[in-house]
Amino acid sequence: MTSTVSDQALVCASNQSIFLAGESGPVWRVVEGVVRLDRDSGPIRQPVQLALPGDLIGAETLCGQPYQLSASAFTCCRLEPVRPDPEAASGPLLQQALLQQLDRSQDMAQLRTGSVLQRLTHLMGLMGLEWRPEQRALNGEADAIREALPTLREVAQVVDAKTETVCRALAQLLPPRSRKSGPVRAVRDWSSTAPGRLATAWAANAAPLGAAA
Fold it and tell me: Which residue of 82, 150, 175, 183 has the smallest Cβ count within 10 Å?
């Protein structure tokens, strides 16, 4: 799969490769969408982290190292290269990458522990999907959420569950797909929202959902 790249931006469709472990290149900043970072273990990709708008990926290149993980578009996304001045210190970027790593590690822990319902709720929150746990989403909202999610296989890998379990959990969270024809109602664009605040708000909503499916 290919990506559209320019000096200003890299635009990827869902599931497209951004870079592979072992390659060299610039540091990238996620502008829109969600990026998946994986450790390659033979033919198997092991999810390590999700990068959200504002996050840096590939920061190890600032230390003269090749990319340590492979990156792909978890959702449609846009990135921009971060090219620091060769004469400027890279400390601030490395500090940002370190603090970001702490936040995303906590996110990944929540995506892979607890009930599958809790994991999916946290994932939807990170993606900025407008779902209210106190009441089941309306059909139009549910259709929009389903359209915005990656494939069941991709979601299942990230939340460490079987595809069948994810399918059942989504059926509990959302009403059935609407049979009405016409365009799906757009999901609110949260790309400009601070990822830390967004993750905290949705993580708080995840707790009371109950046992796994």
Answer: 183
Q: pLDDT by residue (tens digit) across 45-97?
A: 899 999 999 999 999 998 889 999 999 999 999 999 997 766 666 788 888 89
Among candidates 68, 70, 179, 198, which has minimal Cα distance to 123?
198
Closest to 117 measured CA to CA, from 140, 136, 93, 94: 136
Please state the length of the chain.
213
- The first and second tokens of residue 211, run together, are 């046992």
Nearest to 11 by CA among 79, 83, 82, 81: 79
Tell me how far apart the alpha carbons of residues 36 and 80 are, in angstroms, rounded to a whole number.
Answer: 16
CA angle 37, 49, 204 (to 5 degrees): 150
Asked if residues 30 and 80 have their Cβ atoms less than 8 Å apart, the reply is no
Longest dimension (CA), the chain: 59
Report the candidate in 114, 118, 124, 95 with the shortest Cα–Cα distance to residue 199: 124
Q: What share of the chain is helix, strand, coil (3-state, %, to 5)?
A: 40, 20, 45
Query: Given pLDDT bands bounded at 50, 70 and 90, which one contains residue 167?
Result: very high
Which pTM does this prediction carry?
A: 0.75
- Report which secondary-structure segment, H or E, holds 157: helix 152-159
Q: Is 193 left (phi over 0), alpha (psi -120 to 50) or beta?
A: beta
